[in-house]
Design a protein that fits this description.
The complex is a heterodimer of chains A (about 70) and B (about 475). Chain A is built from one helix and five strands; from the N terminus they run ββαβββ. Chain A has about 70 residues and is an alpha+beta fold. The longest helix of chain A is centred in the middle third of the chain and has 11 residues. In chain B, helix 2 runs antiparallel to helix 9, helix 4 runs antiparallel to helix 9 and helix 10 packs across helix 14. Chain B has 14 helices and 27 strands. Classes of the chains: A alpha+beta (about 70), B alpha/beta (about 475). The interface between A and B is medium-sized, with 29 and 37 residues.
Chain lengths: ~70, ~475
């Protein structure tokens, strides 16, 4: 199952939640796992989604650090 | 003069009729509550307040009422607390979310029977042997407005909802859109048609093109936070993020039997203090559940290290999922001591509190080594615990970088680099172990804490004193 996070495609296990995809994204970018709590996650429409959301319902998400415009 | 009075009266009567024909339907909706029982007293208060204003308030849930809180999910009758609380809040209907199937067929049938509201899902057809009372739709009379509510749940590429496949055996699932379209005739019978959807926001938007005869989609599944609701292709869609952060109050205006306007607002559930005191007391009762002190197994010798408890967890993964080998990130083992005596449900939930799902992967020996190496790098450079094998690993004493791993089977032979092994670990470990592998893995629909509980119950007695499967080779 693939998910595009900003411009990066990550492959996650079936049944994964958005948090797992973000952890993979952070690991791939060699960033601290703790940063996951500082991210705002939105779908392609710009709606906020939470970390427990199922990846299967999102083909693409956008992330940014909280407070950053 | 008489003519004037008569015409004025006629005009007033016309106005009255017109006013009578303009009616409002009020809906309070939730989705993906995931057993946030701590929020139910506040939701009860919101429902009571709205009901005082609008006696014909319709209260709906778009599914995934359970899974996410051990107090609920591991109750003696799993997920009964949420059903009980929803009964008191006064829910009129729920659809099935994929997580409702986590109860298993018999568990779900029992919960539906205990619900004071119907379970609606048009694309789910349980075999009669389950005695599972799922209806495709239900009509409600809300102060003279006839409301038809249809339910639907999303299916994975396997054609079943995302839950453990065992939980969906002998239940037939059909494509949601086709199942909904079969109920098109409801348009003629109803003033308002509501689709209670556990399909996800994107699917709701896609379906909106095909469902001009539906008035409003009360959505769930993708945990999408909308600002009230949105109009897509003439169809009004609502949804909130999960665990009852917010609920939605929708107002549907009906004139001459037709919906002319939909509006919605979010209501904050987490935070504000007003709550329904009866529900609060019931939540307190469920929170002091004696079932959490239930002894699963006797500990014959004390656990004295993280590794001993990590080995217990890894053995549970293998035994309960029939894997060849398993591993567990060290940071996921939350205490290192357990005295002799009873190992309780509460002890397991303290040991493994993260609600991580168990994930199964088919990996070659080389892929397994690579994955464990990445797990080490991203889990504070602590080597993961293992089951079904032992591990020898070399660490650079200065940089703490991992220099090499040798995995040995139970007979002390090296694991083959090329052979495939069925590996089970937890979802967090899979996510942080970003190695190259052909199989991305699949969740088995059970949390790892549940596997540990099942294992302890099956074992009856456990003794791990002195068990050591990791050897650090000094350079």
């Amino acid at each position: 199952m693939r998910l595009k996070i900003n411009r990066v495609i990550v492959e996650v296990f079936e049944g994964a939640e958005v948090r797992h995809a973000l952890l993979m994204y952070l690991a791939r970018r060699r960033m601290s796992m703790k940063l996951i709590n500082q991210l705002t996650v939105c779908d392609v429409w710009g709606h906020e989604i939470d970390l427990d959301a199922p990846v299967s319902e999102h083909k693409e998400i956008r992330i940014k650090f909280k407070g950053k415009k | 003069m008489r003519k004037m009075v008569l015409s004025a009266l006629a005009a007033m009567m016309a106005l009255t009729v017109s006013a009578q024909e303009r009616r409002e339907l009020h809906i309070l909706s939730t989705n993906d509550m995931h057993a946030a029982i701590e929020c139910m007293p506040r939701l009860g208060f919101v429902a009571d307040s709205l009901r005082a204003l609008y006696p014909d308030l319709l209260i709906l849930s778009a599914g995934d009422n359970r899974s996410g809180e051990p107090l609920n999910d591991m109750y003696e009758i799993p997920a009964y607390p949420m059903v009980s609380l929803m009964n008191i809040v006064g829910f009129h209907a729920t659809t099935l979310g994929n997580h409702e199937f986590d109860s298993g067929q018999r568990g779900l049938a029992k919960l539906i029977d205990m619900s004071a509201f119907p379970t609606l899902c048009a694309n789910v057809h349980p075999d009669s042997k389950w005695d599972m009372h799922v209806k495709p739709y239900q009509l409600f009379d809300c102060g003279g407005i006839t409301v038809g509510v249809i339910g639907a749940v999303a299916l994975s590429p396997l054609g079943i909802p995302e839950s453990h496949p065992d939980n969906t055996v002998d239940i037939r699932f059909t494509e949601p859109l086709a199942a909904i379209q079969e109920l098109r005739w409801l348009r003629e019978k109803c003033d308002v048609v509501v689709l209670l959807s556990h399909l996800g926001f994107e699917t709701d938007v896609q379906f909106s093109k095909e469902l001009p005869w539906v008035d409003i989609i009360v959505g769930g599944h993708s945990h999408t936070q909308l600002k009230g609701g949105e109009m897509h292709n003439g169809l009004f869609i609502t949804q909130n993020t999960n665990r009852l952060k917010r609920a939605t109050h929708s107002t549907v205006i009906v004139e001459d039997g037709k919906v002319v306007k939909c509006m919605a607002e979010n209501i904050e559930i987490r935070g504000p203090k007003n709550e329904n005191k009866v529900i609060a007391e019931l939540v307190r009762y469920f929170s002091e559940n004696p079932a959490f002190h239930r002894v699963l197994a006797q500990v014959d010798t004390p656990f004295e290290t993280y590794e001993e408890l990590g080995c217990l967890m890894c053995d549970a993964y293998i035994a309960e999922s029939k894997a060849d080998v398993s591993f567990q990130n060290a940071g996921g083992v939350r205490y290192d001591k357990h005295a002799t005596g009873g190992f309780t449900v509460s002890d397991v939930l303290r040991l493994d509190p993260f609600q991580n799902e168990a994930v199964e992967l088919t990996l070659t020996g080389k892929e397994l080594v690579d994955m464990m190496s990445k797990c080490y790098d991203n889990d504070n450079r602590v080597f993961p615990y293992v089951g079904g094998m032992t591990a020898e690993y070399t660490i650079d004493p200065e940089t703490r970088a991992l220099k090499g791993i040798v995995l040995l089977d139970k007979d002390g032979k090296k694991l083959s680099q090329k052979k495939n092994y069925k590996v089970v670990t937890n979802s967090y470990t899979v996510a942080i172990s970003n190695s190259k592998r052909k199989d991305a893995g699949r969740g088995i629909g059970r949390i790892t804490a549940q596997l540990v509980m099942d294992y302890l119950e099956h074992q009856g007695h456990v003794s791990y004193q002195g068990v050591k499967r990791l050897t650090e080779i000094k350079q």
